[in-house]
Amino acid sequence: MARSSQTEMAVLGGLSIEPMTAYALREAIRDVLGHFWSESFGQIYPTLNALEEAGHVRREGGPRARSSVYALTPSGLARLRDLLAEPVQEAQPRNGLLLRLFFGRVLGRDRCLELLRDARDRARAQLGEYEGMLAQLTATEGHTPDWPYMRLTLLAGIHQCRAGVAWADECLTTLEGDPTP
Known about the structure:
Strand order of the largest sheet: 1-3-2
Largest sheet: 3 strands, antiparallel
Strand content: 5-15%
Helix content: 55-70%
Order of helices and strands: HEHHEEHHHHH
Radius of gyration: 21 Å
Number of strands: 3
């Protein structure tokens, strides 16, 4: 699936929850989906325009895109369903931490230990954020039909963070026990 199709999916998906302005859509994508997906204004505005031209969204309100509210149309809902039914296209990973650790002999043990401690600290902090979001959203969204599905994504983040902490701890134990400089 091309990047533009995935942008369409994010935009249509956001509007399937409720109509909103382009700015509110960008904020919702950043604040809600931002832990696993991102879109810029540069991607959202052209996508909204193309979706409007295709009849998948309807613009209501002011003449300017900024003040307009966009709503999903029946054809937009059908397009979203089609996009969601396509096979998931995984992006090739690019992990700067793992790249550095792979060449750790050149980088040096002490710097690798520092990188691992930082990664563990970031994973712990993110875990706290996800757990806080889970508690807050359970209270506010727990009764909505979207909640079970939103919860799945939060649980993925929680489990990834726990795995990240465990991985960093194991790596630190390995390197701290290795006397090789």
